[in-house]
Amino acid sequence: MSDHPIESLMKTAMENIKDMIDVNTIVGDPVETPDGNVIMPVSRVSCGFAAGGADYKSGDSKDEEGTLPFGGGSGGGVSVRPVGFLVVGHNNVRLLPVDGNAVAERLIDVAPNLLEKLQEIMQQQNKQNKTVPETPPASPLV
């Protein structure tokens, strides 16, 4: 028994969608800047696919093999939406978003460095406090 026409219809559509999408669609080709950073675009890819068909009867129309005629179709779509850019360089990796609350996201990016700086300042102050000799309490007059 031969394959049903819907199988070849779906196979062709899926192969075409597969050819359209690859990893470079999601994470784009890296670009090196003159200052040594590497920038990679990141995108969100969504795709949809539908196929359908039916054997139909119109009077007594059957082909030579005695099967009914087939009518069908398929469709698909792909949506690519930029999310942001990965910036890699100078011992640092950052995600620069295309949309959203950039101030809040920037604060989250800066928070670890800020905490490290605060810890260093506190450690320096503790060292200074330990090296300064304490003055003895004044003796009461007797």
Secondary-structure blueprint:
Layout: H1 5-20, H2 23-26, E1 31-32, E2 38-55, E3 70-89, E4 92-97, H3 102-131
Antiparallel strand pairs: 1-2, 2-3, 3-4
Describe this structure in words.
By secondary structure, the protein is of the alpha+beta class. It folds into two domains: 5-99, no CATH class; 101-130. 35% of the residues lie in helices and 32% in strands. It contains three helices and four strands. The chain has helices at residues 5-20, 23-26, 102-131; strands at residues 31-32, 38-55, 70-89, 92-97. Strands 1-2-3-4 form a four-stranded antiparallel β-sheet. It starts with a helix and ends in an 11-residue tail after the last helix.
Give structural attributes.
3 helices, four-stranded antiparallel β-sheet, alpha+beta, 2 domains, single chain, 4 strands, 142 residues
- Main-sheet strand order equals 1-2-3-4
Number of strands: 4
H and E string: HHEEEEH
Biggest pleated-sheet summary: 4 strands, antiparallel
Low-confidence blocks of residues: none
The helix-and-strand class reads: alpha+beta
Short description:
The chain has helices at residues 5-20, 23-26, 102-131; strands at 31-32, 38-55, 70-89, 92-97. With 142 residues, the chain is of the alpha+beta class. Strand 1 and strand 2 (38-55) form a beta hairpin.
